[in-house]
Design goal:
Layout: H1 4-10, H2 17-25, H3 29-45, H4 52-65, H5 69-86, H6 92-105, H7 110-126, H8 130-146, H9 150-161, H10 171-182
């Protein structure tokens, strides 16, 4: 729903979360990862499990950006498992999208990457979450753009982008407009 930049500037209720996200935004992965891990461990120590998939998604982004792909797979899969177990589906679409981004970063088969993005879009639609659908559609559109399918990418992104009537200054909508213009 919120971009990493938005999450960072609005803060987390997790100890160290906003600092770790800020370091991550600055590309300081080596410094961000211990802060994020410490914050997650502190949060888990409280016994709370409700937002754990959310925090694991941020950690998955950090591991992916640091090219620690095995760790990224582990935390994203854990986030999906916890979401399933606790029926905490808020982050489910985003976790699938991030899994697709991870596979793409690993230069995996495009079909597997596309499958993750399509699954994220399907979940977002089922949940009636335009924000998650927009993010997953942007990821799919970027994949298609890299595979010379710009017309398909433009059509898919236009369909979700045109459902918005306000908030065009938010990071995701700014990114979507820029992507549309590049297609």
């Amino acid at each position: 729903m919120l971009s990493l930049k938005t999450r960072c500037t609005t803060g987390w209720s997790n100890p160290g979360g906003s600092k770790g996200a800020g370091l991550l935004l600055q590309g300081r992965h080596a410094e961000a990862l211990p802060v994020l891990l410490n914050g997650l461990n502190s949060f888990r120590a409280t016994g709370a499990a409700v937002r754990v998939p959310y925090y694991l998604s941020i950690l998955g982004v950090a591991f992916t950006q640091a090219s620690r792909f095995e760790d990224a797979h582990r935390v994203l899969n854990e986030g999906l498992a916890i979401a399933e177990k606790n029926e905490d589906r808020f982050q489910e679409a985003e976790l699938h999208r991030l899994k697709g981004e991870l596979l793409r970063a690993e230069s995996r088969d495009g079909a597997d990457v596309e499958k993750c993005f399509r699954q994220a879009i399907e979940i977002a639609r089922r949940q009636q979450s335009k924000a998650w659908e927009l993010r997953a559609t942007m990821s799919l559109s970027r994949l298609w753009q890299s595979r010379c399918r710009s017309a398909d990418a433009h059509a898919a992104l236009t369909a979700i982008y045109c459902t918005y009537t306000e908030a065009f200054a938010t990071p995701d909508l700014v990114d979507a407009k820029a992507l549309l213009q590049s297609l």
